[in-house]
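Okay, any thoughts on this one?
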Amino acid sequence: MVRVVPLQLRLPVPRRLARFTSVSYEQGTGQQPIHPEAYHHLLFPHLYMPELPPEQTAGYRQTLLRQWETAGFFEDGPGPRMFLYRQVHADFTSEGWIAGVDVEDYRRGCVKKHENILPERARQIAEYFGQVHLNGSPILLMHRRVEEAAALREAVTQRSPTFSFTDEQDTTHAGWMLTAEEAQHLAMLFSAVSALYIGDGHHRCRAYDVYYRRGGGSGPMMAFIAAEDQVRVSSFHRLLSPMRSIEKSAAEAFFSLEFGEPVAEYATLEEALVHSGEVGLYTGRSVTVYALPDRQTPEVAQVDPVLDELRKGTRIGLDYVNSRLPAEQLRQLVDDRSGVLVLLPPLPLRTIFRYADQGATLPPKATWLEPKMRSGLFLHRMG
């Protein structure tokens, strides 16, 4: 069963909430945040100080964190805490729990994965943990609906939130600190839950595991724990670039060889995105659509090996693109990078759970699951 515990959490003080917290790296573009005090400076110093030698990264991070602490950026609270967190978009609202989940549950398979990881990415995160002993990006863990937990959410939100603010993307964030009795009740409810499913944060789970093993023990992982009806599933498209005209034509021929002739064609990218349940190939002109032969295997698991084969012996790169980006931005990416965009449909949540329950895994970046937490909103003190 799953062990859910309070965490040693620090939060930005109220006046710094909006400017210190940052959109997740996958939501952003890698460009410098507007405010120089944003948490991303701690996470990704190389983006904002490209001249910083790698061997000085740890010292830079530690010095910056001490400066923020001295300047009164954070409040650490009276002890270990849990929160109920709500995120409100124009078209989507999600609620869930900010709490610790024992890394031993990950090690023994009660926290289940559905994607392969990129080892270098996990290593980088573990290195970051070891340098600052802090994590500001909760892991999204999903579970099948628990009625009593839903009732507890309803009860908690009847009182005023501990914090609330609206960010630069007009997304509203609110959090309620749980009482000791509420935290105990939540822990009891999850002790009867047999599994949690990683929605976003496969690399962070692995990094937590590495971090605690280096210390010779175990400990909690910070998670945003959400019921299945509080999660929205999208996909990552694949961007191949750079590609010459002849290589784009070769990609179309290669897809036809692997998957048969196109079954449809859309004149515009906008039209193709409306039909988001199909696999499409966009070369900067129209979108050709393919019907994959294996109806039981998720599309991403069929397409990614084909892309690997297509790229063999070439200098064509592969990038993962958020499928929720508007058509104009996707088109601009393809034009700027002289690339080809492979459109992939989202996986049903039941398929993700099925793969995880079977111990099977999908390629990296098989899914885009929301909500995406703002980095730095909750900071887990690991040391």
Notes: The chain has two domains: 4-233+368-381, 236-345.
